Amino acid sequence: MPALEVCLTPELIHLYPTTEKIVVVTDILRATSCMVTALSEGIDSITPVSTTTECRKLQKMGYLAAAERNGNQVEGFDLGNSPLSYLENDFTGRKLAMTTTNGTIAINKSKSASEVYIGAFLNLSVLSDYLKAKDHDILIVCSGWKGMVSYEDTLFAGALATKLGKSFEIACDSAFISIEQYANAKGDLLSAIRNSSHYHRLQKLKISKDIEFCLEVDRYMLIPRLDNNQLVPV
Amino acid sequence: MPALEVCLTPELIHLYPTTEKIVVVTDILRATSCMVTALSEGIDSITPVSTTTECRKLQKMGYLAAAERNGNQVEGFDLGNSPLSYLENDFTGRKLAMTTTNGTIAINKSKSASEVYIGAFLNLSVLSDYLKAKDHDILIVCSGWKGMVSYEDTLFAGALATKLGKSFEIACDSAFISIEQYANAKGDLLSAIRNSSHYHRLQKLKISKDIEFCLEVDRYMLIPRLDNNQLVPV
Fold first, then answer.
1. What domains can you pick out in chain A, each with its CATH number?
2. Which of A102, A170, B80, B183 has its CB 3.0 to 4.6 Å from that of A143, i.e. a possible disulfide?
3. Degrees (nearest 5) of the Cα angle A178, A184, A188?
């Protein structure tokens, strides 16, 4: 039976050998929710980069460029970290470069994995069905907040682990904790998340519409996959 | 209102500045349960050290020496990591040197804190009453297992945070997660812990009596405090 592990923050990824595993990266508020949305709404590919300098370089090469730090759009870039941007504008066929405080760092730390996918509540079921069929060891990497554990990413890890269910061996206590957290919260994700510290941080930014959108389950049927440093649909 | 944070593993302690905080270190299975028991049963003081070499040095100077790696007693030392040893023998007045896989490392990583205390279910209520009266920022440091998050330490963090209650601001999502885990498990700690990966690891060592003992709430009224690199009763 394949093993399922959860790494609660990228700061702990060195404890989980990734080379033989499928990695699912999540950053619910808001990077991976943006990625699923952007590709579903017509963006051609996404290049996740760790620094604004790299992002700027790609912008100069003609990429649409999204940059977020501490929840805010960085000056001089086309977009921040709101998934709604991809519904409000038509970016069909554009290549997107993206850098965020947490999510793109988690992706870059996961690159040694055999396969890397992007998860969010927005693509939960299609992702879990796809992974079940793979029948392979899985590590879910939560992006957290500046190295710290974040509640909403833990919830998503628990949701995916719950969906994957009994076909996998729960191989670390973090996975077990995530599953319990999700069981507590699944009846009302938004109310559960309202208690978290990240929510309070983001609330100050007035992005409550973004948050509601990011908690919508199964809006999209698309799975972003990392392929040659680019995210493209499976 | 003072802040309450939980660091789920010593691998994340660099994210929590400790200098102005009271730190409570916990390693339920079994280092901090041993420490509370040893001092309560007559041990004079405990010197926690990170390596077996340091522990051996103190043994040669006349200390009683306890050393555990991967759950087992290390050859050539007087004791391993079983709290029951301190009930089965009379070590009254002895100085103890101790090194364990996780707990003593967590203590040594916490030394820059303004005050360091040792917590376990065995001294839960006396510790929480003492800390409430301090009215100061608190960081609970879970020892985990080789850097990874462990369920039983998370439960203890949640139990202590729940006891400290509304006198503290819950200042990170890890604290929030710990409180929820404890709320799920408090009716039957042993059954809850039986699902965890650490329990399965320890079960192989046939220490189920140790585990039951470590989950006993409020057996002792003693709080170990770190003072000049030694743990002594408050």
1. 3-233 (3.90.1560.10)
2. A102
3. 115
